[in-house]
Structures are given as C-alpha cells and as structure tokens.
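Fill in residues.
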C-alpha cells in the first residue's frame, strides 16, 4: 500500500508542471476570449445591429413571450467560446488527453458553419432594413395604400430566405431545407412574375427609374 501511495504521489509531482501549464494556457484563453468578445460587441454596436432589429420588430416579438435578447452580446459570446475552445485544445494536448481533445476539435471544426450563419444573419439585418425603407418610401411617394404592409412583406421574404440558408449552413436536415429553399424561391419568382405581368410593369419601371436617378 505504501508503494502505491508513493507511486501515486510521484505521478502527481511529475504531472504537476504540465497541469500548471495547461491551467495557465486555459486562463490566458479565457482572458483573450473575453477581450475579443468585448471588441465584437463594440463593433456590432457601431453597426447599430440591435437598433436595426428593433425597427424590424424583433424586440416586440420577444416581448410577447416575456423574453429579451441582446443579439450583439449573443454573437460576442459565440466568438468568446470559440477562442476558449482553441486554448482548451492546447491545454488538453499538454495533459495528453487525446480523446477529449479530438472531441473538442470536432466542435471547433463546426464553428466555420456557425460563423457563416452569423454573416448571413448580419447581412440579412441590413438587407431587410434597407429594402423595407426603400419600398415604403417609394410607395408612399406614389401615394399607394398599405405601403408599410408591402415593406413588411419584402422584409419577411428576406428573413425566410435567410433562415433557410442559415439552417442549411448549420446542416440541420440540409436536404429538406434545400428543397424548401428552392421551392420558396420558385414561388417568389412566379408570384412577382405574374404580378408584373398582370399590370405591374409600368409601376415597376417607374420605381426602378427613380432608384436609378437617386444612385446617379
């Protein structure tokens, strides 16, 4: 028994430097992750991401269910977790925990899909807000009723396409999502094609002409 105790203590002493180094690296990773999280949140605040989501009605939607969401902070947390996991793999490698390390690396390999989904989300926020304002302003100039409703429809279409793209990127039933995405795009194309074909050509041409003048 004494020999077993001595061998156990000796193993702990031999492993102690690696344990200290692994804990130190993990500590540095947590600090780096939090710093990058703060920078990410500040960057998204400069782009007024939360304000845009508020104008699109997201805040009202979550208020109905007594829930609050800070998208900038949520995205910052994801970035923070990614960098902590990177440093965690180094810590596990020092400790020789190869099986656990492989599991963590599998999670890290999935993060590019998450980052692309985030980019799609942020791009859609700007696209939905911009397209809604353009439609509302253009239709109000033409004194067309329900311009706000039409703007909401355009914004909703953008979000539906974006959500399908995000789900596909995250590999959530990708075959089904791809089928729905293609079907929805075809439906939108046919809908607008028939709408313009049944008398909306002149109106669409006028809107495009006004937009061209503004751009010039």
């Amino acid at each position: 028994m004494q020999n077993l105790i001595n061998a156990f203590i000796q193993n702990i002493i031999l492993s102690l430097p690696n344990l200290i180094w692994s804990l130190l690296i993990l500590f540095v990773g947590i600090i780096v992750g939090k710093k990058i999280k703060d920078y990410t949140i500040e960057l998204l605040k400069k782009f007024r991401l939360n304000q845009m989501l508020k104008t699109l009605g997201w805040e009202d939607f979550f208020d109905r269910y007594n829930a609050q969401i800070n998208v900038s902070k949520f995205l910052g947390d994801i970035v923070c977790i990614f960098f902590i996991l990177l440093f965690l793999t180094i810590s596990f490698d020092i400790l020789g925990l190869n099986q656990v390390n492989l599991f963590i690396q599998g999670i890290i390999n999935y993060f590019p899909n998450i980052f692309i989904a985030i980019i799609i989300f942020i791009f859609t926020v700007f696209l939905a807000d911009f397209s809604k304002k353009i439609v509302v302003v253009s239709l109000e100039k033409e004194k067309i009723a329900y311009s706000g409703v039409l703007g909401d429809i355009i914004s909703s279409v953008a979000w539906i396409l974006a959500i399908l793209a995000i789900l596909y990127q995250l590999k959530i039933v990708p075959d089904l999502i791809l089928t729905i995405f293609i079907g929805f795009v075809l439906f939108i194309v046919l809908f607008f094609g028939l709408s313009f074909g049944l008398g909306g050509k002149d109106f669409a041409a006028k809107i495009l002409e006004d937009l061209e003048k503004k751009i010039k």
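The chain has two domains: 1-96, 111-216.
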